Amino acid sequence: MITFTIPEDSMTPGAVAWRRSRLRAPVALPGHALLRSRGGRVEVLTGRPWARSGDRFCQVDLRGRLLTLAPQAIATREGVDAHVTAVVALHVADPVASVLTTDDGDAAVYLAVQIALRDQVAGIELADLLLRGLDLAPVAEAARDAAVRVGLAVDRVALKDVRAPRTLASAREEALAVELTAQADLERARAEVRATRARLAAAQLLDRSPVLARIRLLEALPAGTRLSVSDTGLGALVAGAQDDGAADDGTVPRAEAD
């Protein structure tokens, strides 16, 4: 049984709900510790002893909880405000001390983390803060020191969010959009250069091989085109001649030689 003795006239429960109980002490709730105040002494009960007329009882929650700091606007090394949010996981380690030392132990831990965060952020540049984060070891140490004094224990301190100022964030988004647009334009230009080089190579190949040029021309002719070929080579091309020479049954006319 843990005991903590204080003078009768200096015991002020504050926000803790102290209640009387008839005959026996109440049953401790799951995840809670039952405290009894009797004759200036506060102690943790492990059973259900008989209650006296002057006894007072209260339940202390021992379950873990999260303490989330509101976004903190903290100036970095170069004087630019960064919005930092941290979260602290803690629980009650000493129920008696948590009741007698303060009426709000979370507020003490909150203030310690807030001050430690400001000290850490003030010594780092904004770019490093956004890219690498923040070393929270000094912050966690300050939180644990403050928690021990009020009967709490800190399990973990984590950085929840880090944001640049809205104007700077907008400028970063605009710069990123410009960079992405420039990359897209560069890729289109490279594709056009590759296509132009391919067309130039094809033109040079056709220029060196007239036979291949004629074959390529024939491949490019639309269906139904009528050709006139002379004895000396490729004759004139008659385009769209299907109207006069097309058969009634829909067959495609053949190329005719003179």
What would your notes on this structure say?
By secondary structure, the protein is of the alpha+beta class. It has 7 helices and 11 strands. The chain has helices spanning 95-100, 105-122, 126-132, 137-149, 166-208, 210-220, 242-245, and strands spanning 3-5, 32-38, 41-45, 56-61, 65-68, 72-75, 81-92, 152-163, 226-229, 237-238, 256-257. A 4-stranded antiparallel β-sheet has the order 1-3-2-4. Strands 5, 6, 7 and 8 form a 4-stranded antiparallel β-sheet that branches. It has a 3-stranded mixed β-sheet with strand order 10-9-11, with no helix packed on it. β9 and β10 (237-238) form a beta hairpin. α2 runs antiparallel to α4. It is elongated, with a radius of gyration of 43 Å.
Order of helices and strands: EEEEEEEHHHHEHHEEHE
Main pleated sheet: 4 strands, antiparallel
- The secondary structure category is alpha+beta
Low-confidence stretches: 1-14, 233-258
Hey, roughly how much beta strand do the residues contain? 15-25%
> Overall mean pLDDT score?
79
C-alpha end-to-end distance: 122 Å
- Per DSSP E runs of 2 or more residues, the count of β-strands stands at 11
The residue fraction in helices comes out at 25-40%
Shape: elongated
* Sheet with the most strands: spatial strand order: 1-3-2-4
Show the helix and strand layout.
Blueprint: E1 3-5, E2 32-38, E3 41-45, E4 56-61, E5 65-68, E6 72-75, E7 81-92, H1 95-100, H2 105-122, H3 126-132, H4 137-149, E8 152-163, H5 166-208, H6 210-220, E9 226-229, E10 237-238, H7 242-245, E11 256-257
Parallel strand pairs: 9-11
Antiparallel strand pairs: 1-3, 2-3, 2-4, 5-7, 6-7, 7-8, 9-10
Helix pairs in contact: 2-4, 5-6
